[in-house]
Design brief:
The complex is a heterodimer of chains A (417) and B (367). With 417 residues, chain A is an alpha/beta fold. Chain A contains 13 helices and 14 strands. Chain B has 14 helices and no strands. The chains are: A alpha/beta (417), B mainly alpha (367).
């Protein structure tokens, strides 16, 4: 009896053993994967409803340690026409030997042409289907084709593409020239609520042919800055403005950091800009602006005409003094300087807000979140229709400037005429 | 077989109760709330807790006042043999339904979020095979395992919540009343079955060393679960805003894919094993209680031997739905609403019947 039971158990367990023969379906060997770090999406030129998908695949053998490997390039680029960027992976595998994965994907590059089309939102939402694409992937809009941009981006020193993109993005976000929240999550979050504008990083690899005399620090977007030298031509500056998932315009680097001043979830630091010198209009002075506190935004949405009152506290360091003004001996001049900076900044911000009201008919500062506090239920807020109301809002900006440091040496010699 | 009655301490009991209920924050229960609750879903969690405390209070009271501290005896005393068995059968079918739906959900989570190419049958068989094995070992083993894993799992969950909240913005909670007071109240009423696990766990009361520990443990676990669920639902709103979170199937897994701690990215791979262990504990307890009720119902002395059969049935039914992430979600909504009624009514019914019986019995000797 006991013997029989043992026999039955033995044969039974044979039935279960083959389960382990099946192995692991999801096993992936890292040396058999091709890591896409940047993904470019363009409108296909031939047909209307397809897209051109460009992959930047990093070369894991590339690096300073492996100089014995010869002159292997840091990256490989392949561009194919496909229905979407999920299935494009499989098609690309007819050329690329390894399995293509989005695990290391950090940037999605979109051409301005595609971003401005109505269908853009259909293509980009595929990203929320695929498990390998993370919601913190950065969106970059390029002036030219994404393909051209990716091929032309050949940094000489920081030649690994993923490192280059990360570094230039971080620096740009730090000085406020490109938007701080350009990730996929923010795109979907803002698009789905439909109350604010989404800002995406704007970039190009085309340099303008000649300098623009009216252009001051950061009053440019990518492609407007004239420079020369033996460098990679890629520039990251300014932002692409999206309304309801469709690109409607661009903003300069200066406007982008003004956006940060006005957004009460952000606090800009070390923004360098320049304003006309109040003591000699020939010259401009460079300033470093630190935002002291989140902006104080008061809204009146219930009675009469809806209005917004914004207070911004700024600490301004004066970096240059080309008019050679002696501030140390004449304290009243400091007062004049302070007033002049306040007026200039206030005017700049007011003009910018007016532009968003007239041109974009929406706000990129996330003010709808503050407006939401004034309503009790979602329905009441939806009935108010913030996006429609914004262009007619009375916006009043008040800038409080506090002067900070005047540089290492605060006095300058008196110039004799 | 079980000569020595297995015993549970308060630590193990709380760990089991938390494994049953707090893992809900990781599956599709938050999405069920977001559909109607919008940005006030966290209030619904608190609202349901207020409603749920009535049946839980009645159950704890009835069990602790009964001389055998056993829910089976309470049911039999209250309803008699035939109706008691019918009621037990109803409880059993509720639990079976819940096991099938939730296991299908978990298999879908693993299949769509982590192991994309692995067949569903294999994930299902592994998940329930492990849980069934644990359940066959008995409640004492499950208790020790859940207590052993309790602290690491809790730390991992809290870490995930903390990282989510620090990335989020509190302004997303406004307009504070979300869909309106009326909607919040109705949702709190019909979603009360979020806490139905506290009903099933009462079947374990007889294994507690002291009835006082059962009483205390249930309330401690209940308060912690309410707190945990509220914070979790809150954190998803803070990170994603309600419009976006409404579109998600499994917000917890979206959240842990988004967050990062400094230079540490891809944190979901760190949280996944803890989550998987919590899931194993949860289903082991479910299957154990289910076999317990089944054994009692059909007078099977060694109810643990029917566990393999139960698992086979659960797997074969759980694999039926087509497009699981859509269908199972819909079925789960209906099941939750349906079991809400049972969760409120059954304890109330028991309590009333017991009361009437007591009156009748006390009247008999005096007359």
């Amino acid at each position: 009896m006991f013997h029989l039971r043992k026999k039955i158990l033995f044969y039974l367990h044979l039935f279960f053993l083959p389960i382990f023969l099946s192995g692991c379906w999801d096993a992936q060997e890292i040396d058999r994967l091709a890591y896409v770090v940047a993904l470019g999406i363009d409108e296909a030129e031939d047909e209307s409803n397809r897209i051109q998908v460009t992959y930047v695949i990093i070369n894991p053998n590339y690096g300073p340690q492996n100089s014995s490997q010869g002159n292997e390039p840091p990256r490989e680029i392949i561009s194919i026409i496909a229905d979407d960027f999920i299935s494009a992976r499989e098609s690309a595998n007819t050329v690329i030997a390894k399995e293509i994965t989005y695990d290391a994907l950090s940037d999605i590059v979109i051409s301005e042409q595609l971003a401005r089309s109505k269908d853009f939102i259909r293509y980009i939402y595929d990203a929320s289907k695929d498990m390998e694409i993370r919601r913190n992937t950065e969106l970059i809009v390029t002036k030219e084709d994404a393909y051209t941009f990716l091929v032309d981006t050949k940094p000489i020193i920081e030649s690994e593409p993923h490192r280059y993109f990360k570094l230039i993005r971080e620096k740009g976000q730090q000085n406020g020239n490109i938007p701080a929240d350009s990730q996929l999550l923010y795109f979907t979050r803002i698009t789905e609520t439909g109350n604010d504008l989404f800002l995406s990083t704007y970039a190009t690899s085309k340099v303008t042919k000649e300098p623009n005399p009216d252009q001051y620090d950061s009053q440019f977007k990518a492609g407007d800055l004239f420079f020369k030298g033996e460098v990679n031509n890629t520039q990251f500056a300014g932002s692409a403005v999206f309304k309801n998932g469709q690109m409607i315009g661009t903003m300069t680097g200066e406007e982008t950091h003004l956006t940060n001043f006005l957004n009460n979830t952000l606090q800009s630091e070390n923004v360098v800009t320049s304003l006309p010198d109040p003591f000699d209009s020939k010259y401009r002075m460079s300033l470093r602006i630190n935002q002291q506190d989140h902006p104080k935004i008061h809204m009146n949405l219930k009675e009469g005409k809806p209005s917004v009152h914004v207070e911004i506290d700024l600490l301004v360091d004066v970096l240059t003094n080309h008019s050679m003004t002696e501030y140390f001996r004449y304290p009243e001049k400091i007062h004049t300087l302070e007033n002049s900076i306040t007026d200039d900044l206030q005017e700049k911000i007011s003009r910018f807000i007016e532009r968003t009201q007239k041109e974009f008919e929406g706000n990129p500062f996330g003010w709808s979140l503050i407006a939401r506090k004034h309503f009790l239920t979602n329905k009441a807020f939806e009935d108010f229709d913030w996006m429609k109301q914004y262009p007619d809002l009375d916006v009043e900006v008040q800038v409080h400037v506090k002067l900070g440091r005047f540089g290492r040496q605060s006095s300058v010699p008196e110039l004799k005429q | 077989m079980n000569k020595v009655k297995p015993s549970l301490g308060i630590r193990e009991y709380i760990a089991i109760a938390l494994a049953l209920s707090s893992t809900k924050l990781t599956d599709d229960v938050p999405s069920l709330l977001f559909k109607q609750g919008e940005n006030s879903s966290w209030m619904i969690i608190i609202g349901t807790a207020i409603f749920a405390s009535i049946p839980i209070y009645l159950l704890v009271k009835m069990i602790s006042e009964h001389e055998e501290n056993c829910l089976f005896e309470v049911i039999h005393d209250a309803c008699g043999k035939v109706f008691g068995n019918i009621l037990l059968f109803i409880c059993w079918s509720f639990l079976t339904m819940q096991i099938i739906i939730i296991s299908a959900t978990y298999v879908d989570i693993i299949g769509t979020m982590y192991f994309i190419k692995t067949p569903h049958l294999f994930i299902y068989a592994t998940l329930l095979g492990v849980c069934g094995y644990a359940a066959m070992k008995g409640i004492q083993h499950i208790g020790s395992v859940s207590w052993l894993c309790f602290i690491p799992i809790t730390i991992a969950f809290l870490l995930a919540l903390l990282l989510t909240i620090t990335k989020g913005s509190f302004t997303f909670l406004f307009p504070i009343l979300g869909p309106g007071v009326k909607e919040i109240m109705t949702q709190s009423m019909i979603k009360v079955a979020i806490y139905i696990d506290f009903f099933f766990i009462c079947f374990l009361a007889t294994y507690m060393r002291h009835v006082k520990e059962f009483k205390k443990g249930t309330w401690i676990a209940f308060i912690v679960v309410v707190f945990e669920l509220t914070i979790a639902v809150l954190s998803y709103i803070l990170l994603f805003d309600y419009k976006t979170v409404q579109l998600f199937n499994y917000p917890h897994h979206e959240a842990i894919r988004f967050i990062s701690a400094g230079f540490l990215t891809n944190l979901e791979l760190f949280f996944f094993p803890f989550w998987a262990i919590a899931t194993f504990v949860r289903f082991s307890v479910y299957i154990y209680i289910q076999s317990l009720i089944f054994g009692r119902l059909f007078r099977i002395e060694n109810s643990r031997f029917i566990i393999p059969a139960i698992i086979a049935i659960v797997i074969s039914i759980g694999l039926i739905p087509e497009a699981p992430s859509l269908t199972v979600f819909k079925i789960h909504t209906y099941a939750l609403h349906g079991s809400s009624i049972g969760f409120i009514l059954i304890p109330l019914l028991l309590w009333i019947l017991l009361h009437i019986r007591k009156r009748v019995n006390s009247n008999v000797p005096s007359s």
